[in-house]
Amino acid sequence: MIKNSKAVRYGLIAGIGTVAYFLLFYFINPRLMFNPWVYWASLGIYLALMWKALLDEKQAANGPLAFKDSLRTAFYIFVIANFCYYLFYYLLFGLIDPGLVDIQKSVMLESLEQASNLLSPEQKDEMRKSLDSGALAITPGRVFFTFARSLIGGFLLSAGMGVVAGRR
After folding, report:
1. Is the dihedral of CA 45, 38, 80, 85 positive or negative?
2. Among candidates 87, 70, 83, which has minimal Cα distance to 14?
3. pLDDT digits (tens, 9 = 90+) for 98-137
4. Contact 117/48 with Cβ under 8 angstroms?
5. From CA 11, how far away is CA 53, in angstroms rounded?
6. What is the pLDDT of residue 137?
7. Are 94 and 139 in contact (CB under 8 A)?
8. Is residue 2's pLDDT more than 70?
9. 3-state DSSP call for residue 141?
10. Number of CB atoms found within 10 A of residue 97's CB
11. How many helices (H) and strands (E) does the chain have?
12. What percent of the chain has pLDDT over 90?
């Protein structure tokens, strides 16, 4: 059981907030969900709540937090929020609206054409073949491994926040 209830609470808020954020774009126009600005801006929800939790813990401790404690809190929040997001992703793309995979493929092919001057013809062909081979298919295993890989980046973000929180 996770001892840090603030991390659980903030992680759930971040996860639910991220799901609501993507649902907003889904209901406006599903193609917007694949806009890189929309996608990467969702990380701001995680970061804001990770930072808020660290500030709350620092205030409760009446002083600086140890790096280990900051890292643990921030990473718990990231894991919980990301679990919520990937559960939503699997349910929406895999069960509720499987047609989103086709929209995603279309958007990726358009991006590939726009970036054609940055890639060699062989690279473009390889990427196109990858998209045509069903690389975007939504399966529980693929979603789980994507979630697991995302934890590496989440750990690095949490470590960075832990360093900054310890200095302030």
Report:
1. positive
2. 83
3. 999 999 999 988 888 887 778 888 888 888 888 888 778 8
4. no
5. 9
6. 86
7. yes
8. no
9. helix
10. 13
11. 7, 0
12. 69
Residues 6 or more apart whose CB falls under 8 angstroms from that of 11 comprise 49, 76, 77, 78, 79, 80, 81, 84
How far is C-alpha 51 from the chain's CA centre?
16
Angle, vertex CA 157, rays to CA 154 and CA 160, nearest 5: 150
Backbone angles phi, psi at 4, to 5 degrees: -85, 95
Instruction: Name the residue with tokens 């990231």.
Output: 78
63 burial via Cβ count (<10 Å: 0-12, 13-18, 19+)? exposed
Dist. CA 7–CA 11, nearest whole Å: 6
- Sort 18 into a burial class: Cβ within 10 Å, 0-12 / 13-18 / 19+: buried
- What one-letter code names the amino acid at 13? I
Half-sphere exposure of residue 130: CA atoms within 13 angstroms, side-chain side: 10
| CA angle in degrees (0–180, nearest 5) for 151-155-157 | 115
Q: Shortest CA distance to 157 belongs to which of 93, 36, 70?
A: 70
